[in-house]
Amino acid sequence: MKQNIIDRLNLFAGEKEPFLFVVNYAGTEAYIRKLSEIALDECLYDFEGITNVKRQSLSTSAKNPMWKVYEPNFEDYTKDFEIVKNNILRGNSYLTNLTCKVAVDCDLPFEEIFLRAKGKYKILLKNKKSNRQFVCFSPETFVRIKNEKIYSYPMKGTIDASIPNARQILMNDEKETAEHATIVDLIRNDLSRVAEYVRVNRYRYIDVLHTNKGDILQTSSEISGNLPSDYQQHLGDILAAMLPAGSIIGAPKDKTMEIIQEAEDYDRGFYTGVMGIYNSGELNSAVMIRFLENDGLGTYFKAGGGITSKSDCRKEYEEVLQKVYLPFE
């Protein structure tokens, strides 16, 4: 993360006034504002009920949206997959999170998508100068800080809930089990950089996510550690030590990031970055997955999944498409 972003986060946390931050995947660009200074035509947010929008303040329709997904070319995805898989087989990575952007058509404005979306963490951010905007409805917590303790909730492992015995299949899947174990170990190491007495409190529990295509199941774990008493003055340094988020990179981090750069032929931008709200010594933040963006030329949903030595290309491709959805019931 750029030093000027780290410094601003340290400063804002030290001022003890509630603020919101959004940092891109590369850690080179950030939106940081005091909550009292955020304009509705610039940013809408909702972090588990902490929001600057009242539902009745913007009109929404109950219609079913037009939602058309243009599936990415499977041969192109296969080329990217093979770059990743070959690196894994050579021992350069144990797990690599491969992502892509998927073109979509939707007749709803982003404001309405934001309001109708179900999600733990939601944000709509507009860049008026470039006419770019994105909406993110993430189910994945990055880190929480409360009472001098830091918590992380890595989310890895996905299955269509309508499949018979879906829970049992997901929990018994060797590839998903290995992927989750790798990420938990990585996050434990990340937390150990900034905290003491790091431990896994809950391992591989299941969350249910509701989408416009039906429910999906995902597995998560809870990891925690103890922070030093002066952590508020070093919030930016704490976040920088843990970024990019392990769940959207893989392991080991540095080499896997090089593999991702080689395999992915687009700019992730804010997708897979982090966003959070800090208030009175407490932080609630999320990894920016489930991400829909308009770059001024077209609308894209950015999605991906973890690749291991046991991964099958067709199944990974289908998992990407499974994650391209609107979280409407």
Descriptive report:
This protein has 329 residues and is α+β, with helices and mostly antiparallel strands. Helix content is 28%, strand content 35%. The protein contains 8 helices and 18 strands. The strands form 2 sheets. Strands 1, 2, 9, 10, 11, 12, 13, 15 and 16 form a 9-stranded antiparallel sheet that branches. Strands 3, 4, 5, 6, 7, 8, 14, 17 and 18 form a 9-stranded antiparallel sheet that branches. A hairpin with a 4-residue loop joins strand 17 and strand 18. Helix 1 crosses helix 6 and helix 2 runs antiparallel to helix 7. The two termini are 37 Å apart. The model has no long low-confidence stretch (mean pLDDT 91).
Helical amount among residues, as a percent range? 25-40%
Rg (C-alpha, Å): 19 Å
Shape: globular
Strand-residue proportion: 25-35%
Class based on secondary structure composition and strand pairing: alpha+beta
What's the total count of β strands? 18
Enumerate how many helices there are, as a single number. Answer: 8
Low-confidence runs of at least 5 consecutive residues: none
| SSE sequence, one letter per element | HEEEEEHEHEEEEEHHEEHEHEEEEH
Largest sheet data? 9 strands, antiparallel
Q: Average pLDDT value?
A: 91
Separation, N- and C-terminal Cα atoms: 37 Å
